Amino acid sequence: MREHRDDAAAGVHAAASDARFDVRAAFAEHGPALLGFAVNALHDRALAEDCVQETFLRAWRARASFDPARGSLRTWLFAIERRIVLDVHRAHARRPRLVPQGEHPEPVADVRDPLERLGMVEALARLSAPQREAIVAVHLHGLSYAEHAAATGVPAATLRTRVFAGLRALRTTLDEMDATDA
Amino acid sequence: MHDDTPDRHAELSAAALAGELTAAEEAELAALDAARPDAEAERAELAALVARLEGVEAWDDAEPSDPLAARIAAIDDAADVAAPAPAIAPAPPTAPVAAPVSLDARRRRRRRLLPLVAAAAACLAIGVGIGAAAFGERGGEDVAGAPGALGAIEEVDFVGAPASIAIDGAVVAHTWGTETVLTIEGLAAGETYTVVVVGEDGTEHASGAMLGSEVPVDCRLNAAVLREDVASVEIRTSSGDELAHADVVDV
């Protein structure tokens, strides 16, 4: 499974004169996580791929403004994608939904803040894949550690440690996003 | 990046958050907590975080497709084409802009000029700067995609301008609206020109303004209307007369 290097300069050529943004390298490094965010935020694969393309297009156009000293390339790309996903999500939310005649959806009693869900999806997407997989299995799908260990071959003790570290990372990422949005 | 280094305290804390502690493990965790005063508070914080995860019902581990990789690579190819910026000699001064030859049926549509909110233009004269990325994108290696695809450069033909004015135009669909990319030679120096994106319902969306120059003008302008709702793009003189327009295909 791919591990991301959170090196601030990853994906960016050393040629500081034009702060050249290496699109291919950045996509290879961060594309899967960015797509994971968009797919799970929008539940629409084609739209999610459009959002990822738009993210890299905007990043390429704004490449001169990227400053590795202010944050990692991964954080910068996610910040760009967050705005795009949010715009798309809002545009969809505004569109009326057609339902078959005679079908009356029940009022939703538990209306969660969609921004809260988008924030959590982004934070999960930014985790390492092994951490996210373990958290999803235990805390979203409700598997026990023993069941997940049997399914993956990873010892339960390792999975427990991995989930705890993942939850800490999730908290840190959400704090960073809150600080960025503030 | 993650670290799987064995950590008994973390291991037991994770089990506690999942409600899986045995009695023996519970006692062991209590002993470990006693040596680290902030452990229980952190666990409570993470328990609240776990509760918030309920808003995410499932997770789709999507991997980028080959077509998406190709679309991203096309951005890089465009970048290679764009640098360095080509040196283009200044165009000769032109005569004042004449009135448009004709106003077609689009002129009869209901028109309501939206406020200039969200409208922006970024222009420069090619002879004095870079900013020529658009040329790279509009060369032979554009960002791939059919008209209406997000980020794809879509060439459009501007018609109706005097022969002394050469207009090279394209539009780009974005999630936030429609971008018009223009390269114009022959505009009267110092004259103001506006760009308006006309919606399919006839609504006019202001997209910004530019000054004519003795050198070619390279300009990108944004309008707050989705590409799927756009019928045409118009360039107008300061008096409001049409200089040229481009009809776009339905998407």
UniProtKB/TrEMBL annotation, chain A:
<dbReference type="InterPro" id="IPR013325">
    <property type="entry name" value="RNA_pol_sigma_r2"/>
</dbReference>
<dbReference type="InterPro" id="IPR013249">
    <property type="entry name" value="RNA_pol_sigma70_r4_t2"/>
</dbReference>
<dbReference type="InterPro" id="IPR007627">
    <property type="entry name" value="RNA_pol_sigma70_r2"/>
</dbReference>
<dbReference type="Pfam" id="PF08281">
    <property type="entry name" value="Sigma70_r4_2"/>
</dbReference>
<keyword id="KW-0805">Transcription regulation</keyword>
<dbReference type="InterPro" id="IPR036388">
    <property type="entry name" value="WH-like_DNA-bd_sf"/>
</dbReference>
<dbReference type="Pfam" id="PF04542">
    <property type="entry name" value="Sigma70_r2"/>
</dbReference>
<protein>
    <submittedName>
        <fullName>RNA polymerase sigma factor SigC</fullName>
    </submittedName>
</protein>
<comment type="similarity">
    <text>Belongs to the sigma-70 factor family. ECF subfamily.</text>
</comment>
<keyword id="KW-0238">DNA-binding</keyword>
<dbReference type="InterPro" id="IPR039425">
    <property type="entry name" value="RNA_pol_sigma-70-like"/>
</dbReference>
<keyword id="KW-0731">Sigma factor</keyword>
<dbReference type="InterPro" id="IPR014284">
    <property type="entry name" value="RNA_pol_sigma-70_dom"/>
</dbReference>
<dbReference type="InterPro" id="IPR013324">
    <property type="entry name" value="RNA_pol_sigma_r3/r4-like"/>
</dbReference>
<feature type="domain" description="RNA polymerase sigma factor 70 region 4 type 2">
    <location>
        <begin position="121"/>
        <end position="170"/>
    </location>
</feature>
<feature type="domain" description="RNA polymerase sigma-70 region 2">
    <location>
        <begin position="27"/>
        <end position="95"/>
    </location>
</feature>
<keyword id="KW-0804">Transcription</keyword>
From TrEMBL, chain B:
<keyword id="KW-0812">Transmembrane</keyword>
<keyword id="KW-1133">Transmembrane helix</keyword>
<keyword id="KW-0472">Membrane</keyword>
<feature type="transmembrane region" description="Helical">
    <location>
        <begin position="113"/>
        <end position="135"/>
    </location>
</feature>
<protein>
    <recommendedName>
        <fullName>Anti-sigma factor</fullName>
    </recommendedName>
</protein>
